[in-house]
Design goal:
CATH topology of the largest domain: OB fold (Dihydrolipoamide Acetyltransferase, E2P)
CATH architecture of the largest domain: Beta Barrel
Radius of gyration: 51 Å
Strand content: 25-35%
Structural class: alpha+beta
Number of strands: 23
Order of helices and strands: EEHEEEEEEHHEEEEEHEEEEEEEEEEHH
Distance between the termini: 75 Å
Largest sheet: 13 strands, mixed
Shape: rod-shaped
Length: 414
């Protein structure tokens, strides 16, 4: 049997004529088409994804701004030097015969350091003494001539001119004796210069000559250098701004520059056990470097500090009350300006410009921009945006959260 599809026939009402317009009834869809449309709508609705759940705000570590008394200091870079560096030089021309000291060890004032060849100077001294003896003998003869001629001149047995010549010869003889004595003294001094002794007590450096070298020819030859080390000097340059700040701090504390305690920080970051003091401040600012040259003095009883060492000094300028310190990592530098992320009462991050001062350890002094009681971000700066909501936790709360859920803490660090 052949089956024919069933068609549903919907009867339409008759047309109504109103004037010249014909009003036709709205067409109706077949039942099968309507069922298809409903099914399509149901399938489309079932394919739509649900709206994603809102992510929780990121966790950041915050700290509260507190006021504290901050020790104020400034640091200078410079070099150490001895208060007295004496160069031992040859003062006569001679050959070196002996070196009588150990390099790098202390010497006392008057210790014999070098011996030079004495023989030429002994010969010169002997010749000078011979000339002195001749001059003294001639003077003695002239005096005797005067004694003999005086009675004859009184009795007019000889012309008075002869007596005058004899008296003049005595004066010339005296001058000759003085010249001869000076030559003897000079020869004796040169002979003594053949023994080169330490002019001061201190630490002697390396010898600059060896046995057999000719020294003192043309100019005094450097033999060695001795430095006093019982006190050591630090030389440095302080900028004009640092100087003005130090002056302001000393006026606030009532101290003078020379009364400020100073720490000496060596190249290995250790601090010299004894504090020092300023002993010199230059009268004028160097126009080229816009700095003032300063000198500080430190005790050095063990001689550990040596000339030429590079070091830093930390000058303690007093205490600044009611100051704000924040960790250095909490300060963001952008285009030459410094900012701190502050969390408001609604737990939203706000970027706050601040003016910073000295760096003390791993903290920065905030001079302007923060108030006591405010919260600022310490860790998680990369998670915050202007006006974004965050979940602020203190360091103690972060540690507690990490202890309770190590996995969550590791995820948060990532």
């Amino acid at each position: 049997m052949h089956l024919h599809p069933i068609h549903t026939v919907v009867a339409c009402p008759p047309r109504r004529v109103t004037g010249r317009r014909f009003l036709l009834p709205a067409p109706r869809l077949p039942i099968r088409a309507g069922v298809a449309l409903v099914a399509a709508a149901i399938l489309t609705a079932s394919c739509e994804k649900p709206a994603p759940a809102r992510l929780p705000p990121p966790i950041v570590q915050v700290a509260e701004v507190t006021l504290t008394n901050v020790p104020i200091s400034t640091e200078l870079i410079g070099q150490l030097d001895s208060p007295q560096n004496v160069e031992v030089r040859a003062r006569v021309e001679a050959f070196v015969e002996q070196v009588l000291f150990t390099e790098g060890l202390p010497v006392a004032e008057g210790d014999l350091l070098f011996e030079l060849d004495r023989k030429p100077f002994e010969q010169r001294l002997a010749a000078a003494r011979g000339a002195l003896a001749e001059a003294e003998a001639a003077l003695n003869k002239y005096r005797k001539d005067v004694s003999r001629l005086e009675p004859l001149a009184k009795s007019r047995a000889i012309p008075k001119q002869d007596l005058d010549n004899a008296i003049a010869s005595v004066e010339i003889g005296k001058a000759s004796v003085l010249s001869a004595e000076a030559r003897v003294q000079s020869a004796l001094i040169d002979l003594n210069y053949c023994e080169v002794r330490a002019p001061i007590s201190g630490l002697i450096g390396a010898k600059e000559v060896s046995i057999g070298d000719l020294v003192g020819k043309g100019s005094p030859t450097l033999l060695a250098t001795i430095s006093k080390l019982d006190r050591i000097w630090f030389y440095g340059n302080i900028s004009e701004v640092q100087f003005l700040r130090a002056e302001a701090a000393t006026r606030r504390t009532g101290k003078k520059m020379e009364e400020l305690p100073i720490d000496l920080i060596l190249a290995d970051a250790t601090v010299h056990p004894a504090q020092g003091e300023f002993v010199f401040l230059d009268r004028a600012v160097n126009i080229g470097t816009v700095t003032l040259r300063v000198r500080a003095q430190f005790p050095n009883p063990e001689g550990v500090l040596r000339p030429g060492m590079f070091a830093r000094i930390r000058v303690h300028l007093g205490v600044r009350p009611d100051s704000i310190l924040v960790p250095e990592r909490a300060v963001v530098e952008l285009q030459g300006r410094n900012f701190v992320w502050v969390i408001d009462a609604d737990n939203r991050a706000r970027q706050r410009p601040v003016r910073t001062g000295e760096t003390i350890g791993n903290q920065v002094l905030v001079v302007e921009g923060l108030r006591a009681g405010e919260r600022f971000v310490v860790e998680g700066l990369q998670k915050v945006r202007e006006g974004s909501e965050v979940q602020p936790l203190t360091a103690a709360q972060m540690a507690q959260t990490a202890a309770q859920s190590p996995a969550a803490a590791d995820h948060e660090k990532e």
